[in-house]
Each structure stands twice: as C-alpha cells, then as structure tokens.
Specification:
Two copies of one chain form a homodimer. Chain A has 24 helices and six strands. By secondary structure, chain A is mostly helical. Chain A folds into two domains: about 350 residues, Na+/H+ antiporter like fold; about 150 residues, 3-Layer(aba) Sandwich (Mannitol-specific EII, Chain A), CATH 3.40.930.10. In chain A, strands 1, 2, 3, 4, 5 and 6 form a six-stranded mixed beta sheet that branches. The longest helix of chain A is centred in the middle third of the chain and has 36 residues. The radius of gyration of chain A is 26 Å and the shape is globular. The mean pLDDT of chain A is about 85.
C-alpha cells in the first residue's frame, strides 16, 4: 500500500469507474437497440479514447488513462486479467454434449465455414500484401494472420442473436451453436498456433513442435482433466462452502490453466479457455454457480477489456476506407459462402443455409484479441486493426437482421416465439375477472388496442365456456381486429378458478388474441399452448418460476424438448 | 498491452493465482474448522509472505510478489480495488430496517460497546505511549487510533458466528446484528474522521471541518440518495439487462462513492461502504442480485486483500509478546465489559448479556484496514500492527465457543436449532413407507443408530395413526433410546399420502426422534413443528425450495418471524 500515491490511486479508480460506467452504459444502450452489448462497449472505448475524448481534451485523456507509469501498468494488468476470466467464461459455455449430438452437420459447417474464409483471407493477403503491410517479405505470417482472423466466428454473439430471435433451441439454432462451438474450439487452437509461429524463429521444427504441444495439451485437458474435474466438482460443491468454494475453485483453475500454457510457450488465454471447457462440461456443475461466474465476468471484467480496445487506438486517424471495405467484403463473402455451403452440404435447405451463414458471420472477442497481438508484434498496422474491428462490429450488427431476412417470418411465429419477457407478468389477481383484465391491459397497452373492446370479446368467450384446462392452465382467447397474433401470460401462484376439468385452480393463464379471419391460426396456437402443458412436469416447472425472464427461458426450453 | 513484458504478465498472473488459491484454500480449511474464513486467508498471507516463504526462499518471494516495479504496482492496485468492492459488499448487507426495529437496545449496546473499549484503548495509549511508539509527543493521535481500533466490531464475522450457532434469527441474534450494524456504521465514520485528523495539520478547524463533512455526506447519502436509489432500482432491474444491468450499476455506484469521498478529502472506502448501505437498503433489490455480487466479492476480491496483509509484514520479527498481550487484554476486556453492560442495560439477562459481549468482541476488516493506514502513516509500528492482527484473529476464533459457553445448551435446543443442512433431503420417494425409511436411514447413519429398530418404532406409530397434518405437513415420530432429540426433514415435491385432515398430500415430512423418557420434550417439539407450518404461506415457502441450504435458511427465517 505504500507505493501508489493517493493521486495515482484516485486515477486508477477513476479510470476503472469511467471504463465500467461508460462500457456498461453503452452496452445496455446497444442491447436496447437489439445489438450485441460488446459493440456498445467497444464504441464506449472509442469515445473515451484518443479518437474522441483525446481529440477534444488530450490532457484529460492523459490524466484519466495514462499510457505509462504505475496507473498505466495497473490498468493493463487488470485488463489482461479480464481477458483471462472472459476466456474462462467463454470456455465454460462450450457444451461438448451438443457437439456430439449435432456433430456431423456442425462439423461440415465448421469445416467449410472456416476453410473458405481462411483461403479468402490468406490468398488476398499473400497476393497483394502491399495493400496492408509495409514489408511484403513478411507476407506469409501476415497471410496466416488474415486467414485465421477471418475464419473465426463469435460464439457469445451468435448465441445472443439466436436467443433474441427465439430460435436458439430449435434444431437449426442448436446446429448453429454446435458449429460455433467447434469453430471456437478450433479457432482458439489455431490462434495459439498462429501466435507460436509468429513468435517462433521460423525454422520447421519450431513451428511443428508448438503445434504438437498445443494439440496435445488440448487433448489431455479435454480427455483426461475433464474427467478428473467431473469427479472433483461434486466433492468441491459438497465439502467446500457453497457457492464460494466452487467459484474460487473455477477461477483458480482458470488462472492455473493460463499459467500452464504460458509456461509451455503458448499463450495464457488458450489455457484459460480450455480449462473453462474442461470444467464447464461437467453436468455436476450447478446452474447457479455457472450463472454467478458468467454474470460477474461478462458484466464486470468483459467491459473493462472491450473498452480498453478503444482506448488504445485512434480510430479516426487509422481509418482507411479501402482496407475497411476489403476486410468487410472478404470477411462477409468468405464466411457466408463457406458456412452456408457447409450447412447446405449438412442437409439444410437453401434459406436455412443462408441463415447459418449469416449467423456464423458474427465475429467477436477472438478476432479482437488476435488482432491486438498481431498489432503489438508488428504483423499488422493500425489501419488493418481498425478494419478488423469494423468487421467485428458490422458483422455482429447485421447478423440478426440478415437471419430474419433469410428465414422469413413463418419460422418465427410459433406461440413461444410470440413472447418476450415483457409479455409475461407475475400476477396477484384474486379473481378470474381481475386476471383477465390484467392480461388484456398488458396486451392492449403494448399493441395500442382498445382495452374495453378486447376485454368484452375475451370475457364473452369466457362466460360462454370457461377456458380452464388441466394442469393449472387456462387460455382465455378471442379473435379481434389485429394483423398478427398476440400472446401474454400471467403466472398466478395462488391459482384462480377457471373451471378446469381436473378441478385444479389455474395458475398459468395465457391470453391469446388472434386476427379475426384466421381460424386456422387460432386453432394452431391454442393447441400449441395446450400441448406445451399437456405434461404435468412442464406446468410445474413454469409455476415454480419467480420472474418473467425465468418463465420465458423455461418455455423456450420446454418447447425445444418437444421438437 | 505494450508495456508489461510477458515475464511481468506471467508474474502478475502467478501472484494472483497463488494469492487466490492459497487464500481460498486456507479460508475453506478454517471454515471446516468452524472458524471465520478470513482468519484462514490472513494466515495464508502470512505463510506466503516474508514470515514463512520469505524466510526460507527469499528469492522466490521476490519473484512471485515483487515489492516494486510494474507487477508490484499492479498487485497493489488490484488489492485496493478489492478493498473498495469488499466495503461495498459490507455496506450492502446493512439492513436499516433492523436498526430501527431493534433500535433502542442495540443503540445502548453499541454506545457502551464502543465507549468502554475506546476509553480503555485511549487511556492506556495516552498514559503509557512509550510501550508502543517511539515518539511520545504524538501520543494524542496514537491514543485516538488505539481507542478507535479497539472499539469497532466486525459485522460479517459476527453474522457468520451467529449463523453457525443457529441463533442468527432469534431475538438475541437480531439485536446483536443490529448492534453490529450500528457499530459498523459508526465505526467507519469514526475511522474516516480518524484518518482526516491524522492527515490534517492539527489545527482546530482542520479537525472539525472534515468531521462535519463526513457526517453531512453520510446523512445526505442515507437520507436522500438512498431514496433516489429506491426509486431507480426497479427501473434498472426492469429496463436494463438482468442481472447484468443492476450488477454493473451497483459496482459503478460503489466506485463513484469512493471517488466522491476521496475528492471530499475523506477516504475512498467510506464512500464505497456508505454507497453500499444506500443501495442495499432498497427492498426492490432482488435477492439473487445481492447474492451474485456478494458471492463474487467475498470469494474473489476479499481473499486477495486479506492475503495481501500477510504479504506485507514479517509477523515473526515484528512479534512482541508484551504488546500482543496488552492489546488482547485491552480489546477483550473493553468490548466484553462495554457491550455486555450495554446489553444488560438494554434489558437482557446476565447470560445473554455475556453472549452479546462475546459476539461483539469479534474484530475484522475495519481494524485491519485502519491499522494498515496507521502503519503507513507512521502512527504505529509493525509490532502493534501484528498485535492488532492477533486481536482480530483470536477474538474471532473465540467468539463462537464463548457465546456457546455463556448461553449454555438450553437456549440452543429448539426444533430449528436441531437442524443442519445435512439433516434435510430433497426426496423422490414414491410411497409413505419409502419416505419414512429414507428419513430413518438419514437419522440413523448420522447418529449411529440401528435403523431397523428405529423404523419399526416409527412405523408402529404411523400405522396406529397416520401423522399427516394440514398444509402438506407430516410428522412421523417415535421415542427411542437416545439422549438428545433428533430431527430430519424430507421435502417431497410430488407429495405423499399421510392421510392429512385437509386431504392434501404431505410434501414436508419431518421425522422427530426423542429420548424415551422425555414426554414433555416430544410434545414441545411436535407442537413447535406444527406451529411452524400452521400458516399456509410458511409451508408454501418451504415447498418452493430447491436445496437443503435453502430450506434451512427459510426455516430459520420463519422461526424468527414468529418470535
């Protein structure tokens, strides 16, 4: 405590506060705009860094984010620690079970989805290096970089996009996730190999031996250490404090993984990532443990890292439109063609294959880290770095809209897909009438409908024949003058009497409003809802929920189990 | 990323890994020994620091924990950040509602519990300063330090001890917690005042104005800002991502609080703490949000800080038995007499007052941080610092056993107090007989009883008259040849038919075994269990649980609501 002066300490805390505050703020803003929060976090960094803040207030920039000295060191150290934890969290998300289940089509998709963009990137970099780098003699390593950078997709962003589109748990969604996981796994290994080659002396042996080492390390971790963890985790969760013991265990293991790979001459992040994969695969690991770690890392550590990227570079002076356009075209074309073709070969239809291509086109953390290292090693310059960041941002932003476009609206229209968490309430209504009114108000306020009118329609139906169904379900419904179906749900834990056949009180109350002239659609949705809860355990699961988000995610899961 | 060399980065990650690994390891070990984990974490630091590791392997110590240079700076910065977050977490735990409910006796206890040890410390330091410090002219500030250091109790350790003894939610327990919260609140304010005075020039005005500022800041935060947060939190939880948005919000606010107090000339930690109090008081803040933040901070950041303490000082060379004994005697006597007398004045009996004194005698984080600052300012030397650390460790270790001693066994023998989480199972039994057998086996394996015999006794009773009670409860029971009553619980969510009067299936099944000749005790316990669930909401609350720990903590809460 004696080394950092009180001013330095103030500076350090100020820097962390500003990074976290702006990062989270812009992240949330982008989330509201249905974009990946990471894009907002990077933009927050660009605003706080030399590009904007430094342009107008250079002295302020130097005070808040000093480049050197104790505060500079400390900021860098905590950012580096953040990347490690972030990679640990990414690794924890990899589900080897899904890889096995969707293995074949996912592998084909991954193969073409990585090969084609790699070839695109490698070829262009090798053939016209003078566009990007000053010294064309180093074209081989540069070509390796560009090929690798273009061929890796971003699992977290893809998962997020699929969740937003409500197709995460469909067969198509799970195949995309499986491909993205393969991609991640292979991507990080390729990344480590690239780093070893880049740092190596260039002789044949010095390239082969790290590759062997990396593959060996990965294999040992995933085959042997994973099983050890699988046995240890129940012990840790039972014998140590909960969840403190297991949280500490996972974090320490992530750090140990980083140290091992560093000592083996690979990079720390590979170790953290693979350790995450080995740990996260255990079914014994409780969901709440994963949740605490994920939430804290993605919400506190990750923003620090993403904001830091923008702090490092002046995006305005380094912006070169030609390079940005080349990188964008190469990246988009290679990935969409490659992954799309792979999905098509894997048995998907044309539209779905395009959707896969668009989904896999999302880039993220790995590109950014890889480019950062390449920049620091002098393999690329700032202009290309900015080009890659543009690729990350634009590919991520466009992913959702492009998938929607390719799938059309039909695929996205089932009952569960109609819902967002805003359409679900925890209700304390004490009568059937109150509950129906509550739901009608919820639906009408969102869709700007006349609530008296809608209520009358629903109530008329309800009075003629009450809509209680078995297993605590009730589906009040009506056909009204709208274009698209509307569904809202109330969970009423005390239960209300909707005169269900099994004499149970209705706790899950679904209000279904459908367009006037579409009989088919109403029937389809009604039977879909009824089917959803035909199994007692499903309705139980929903009733034991405490928030709209929880209900929605459980519904999505139930739906996917039934497909 | 360009500044830290790859060796420095490795060193930094190695240091964090070792600190976290050893800290958590020893913390868990001490938890197993029914001690506060913080004691284990401090001892981990002593082992890793100059006292042990540095004695045998001085070069290794210098490599892993360099005192200066980029790695030294970075370790210090992250440790400082950890204290801030730790204080934020401590603040989040303060429940102003409890302060109001138990206000009167808690205030009296706090008043005497702080005044007497302050007088003890101040008087001894002022009268015989030569024992502790080299320059007796600075005796005033030194006396202020010792008085303050001895008068502050440790809320987290006290809470933990009371939880371990199962008296947390009793009236006595809540009064102790309320006192500890007052103590914390006043303690941190006193701490900030002490720092301002110590750093000030010593003129009258420079002492008074920071005191006024600190009190004003605290008042504004707790009266006005707290209400603002209370209104903002539902918005944050609803509109931003969940739980990411609120986690980010709380962490950023904690940092902002730190920056404000630093700018106002107080210390950063006061701001983080008071911000925590203002945020944590809102009833809107969901339990799971609090949980994620608490768990991550106490399990990742806190160990880094506590281990760091041991790294700083050689406890062997600085160990002075005379000083340790003086500090221990002063600390114990002042606090036990003061808080005990306060509790007695506040209306508690003699034994209970002693228990209050022993509980409040626990010291912790605040003493440590205060002493660290005093050490750095040259107000105290390393020997006294070591003395204070000893006081922290020994007072915390002895707190539990001393409370037990003073309360005797009678007070700790209610139904809920009989239970630990091992005595509770989530059961999937499909018949009444299976469920009873499961419970009998659980009880018998722990207490080494003959399960056939016990089962026969219980089943005989069950067959003569089934023990189902209203609200999904059943209490199979028997008197058998044991010395102390035994209770175990099974939660069976599907419910089993114990022929309850309300025709509902029994989901909460309590097996109660009592000594053969103690009719009274059996009746008392049976009626206690029945009363516990006489209210429908209570049984519902238990049924909606997913783990033994959750059931136990809910039972404790229900019990306390009824007292």
């Amino acid at each position: 405590m004696s080394q950092l002066s009180s001013t330095e300490l103030f500076q350090f805390i100020l820097a962390i506060t500003v990074m976290l505050g702006f990062g989270k703020g812009f992240g949330e803003l982008f989330r509201k705009l249905k974009q990946a929060p990471v894009v907002g976090e990077i933009i927050a960094g660009i605003i706080l860094g030399p590009t904007i803040l430094g342009y107008f207030f250079p002295d302020l920039l130097k005070f808040v984010f000093p480049e050197s000295g104790p505060v500079g060191y400390s900021l860098e150290a905590i950012t580096q620690l953040s990347i490690l934890f972030l990679l640990l969290a990414v690794g924890l998300e990899v589900d080897l079970g899904i890889l096995i289940r969707y293995g074949k089509s996912a592998l084909i998709t991954t193969f073409y989805g990585m090969l084609i963009p790699f070839i695109f990137g490698f070829a262009v970099a090798f053939l016209i290096p003078q566009f990007f780098i000053d010294n064309p003699d180093e074209r081989l390593i540069f070509a390796l970089f560009l090929g690798t950078a273009l061929s890796i997709s971003a699992l977290p962003i893809i998962a997020r996009t699929l969740l937003d589109l409500n197709i995460f748990r469909t067969k198509l969604g799970m195949m995309i996730i499986a491909s993205a996981m393969f991609n991640d796994l292979i991507g990080w290994i390729a990344f480590s190999i690239f780093l070893s080659v880049a740092e190596g002396t260039g002789t044949g042996l010095s390239i082969v031996s790290p590759i062997v080492l990396i593959l060996l390390f990965t294999a040992v971790m995933i085959v042997i250490v994973r099983k050890l963890f699988h046995r240890m985790i129940p012990w840790v969760q039972k014998e140590l404090s909960w969840p403190g013991g297991i949280i500490g265990f996972i974090m320490v293991m992530g750090l140990v993984g980083a140290l091992i790979t560093e000592k083996l001459g690979m990079h720390t992040i590979l170790g953290a990532f693979i350790m995450g994969v080995a740990l996260g695969d255990s079914v014994h690991l409780r969901e709440s443990t994963r949740e605490i770690i994920q939430q804290f890392i993605t919400n506190i550590f990750a923003p620090l890292f993403f904001v830091y990227i923008g702090l490092r570079i002046n995006f305005l002076t380094a912006f070169d439109p030609t390079i940005v356009i080349i990188v964008l075209v190469l990246g988009f074309a290679g990935k969409i063609i490659g992954a799309g073709y792979g999905a098509y070969k894997g048995g998907f239809g044309k539209n779905e294959s395009f959707a896969v291509g668009f989904a896999m086109n999302s880039r993220g953390v790995l590109e950014i880290i890889l480019s950062l290292f390449a920049l620091e090693m002098g393999i690329i310059n700032e202009s290309l770095f900015v080009g890659i960041i543009f690729l990350v941002v634009i590919s991520s932003i466009l992913s959702g809209p492009l998938i929607k476009l390719s799938l059309g609206k039909d695929k996205l229209k089932g009952f569960v897909q109609l819902l967002s968490s805003e359409d679900i309430v925890i209700s304390n209504a004490v009568s059937k009438r109150d509950a129906v009114m509550e739901l009608v108000e919820l639906a009408c306020s969102k869709h700007k409908l006349d609530k008296t009118n809608v209520f009358n329609e629903v109530w008329k139906r309800e009075e003629s024949l009450s809509t209680g169904i078995e297993n605590h379900l009730a589906i009040p419904h009506a056909k009204i003058d709208i274009k698209k179906p509307i569904a809202v749900i109330a969970l009423n834990k005390d239960g209300l009497n909707f005169e269900a056949a099994d004499n149970e009180l209705s706790k899950i109350i679904v209000l279904l409003l459908t367009p006037k002239n579409e009989n088919e659609l109403q029937l389809k949705l009604l039977s879909e809802v009824a089917n959803l809860f035909a199994d007692k355990t499903n309705s139980k699961e929903i009733i034991n929920s405490d928030s709209s988000e929880e209900i929605l995610s459980k519904l999505v899961k139930i739906k996917s189990r039934m497909e």
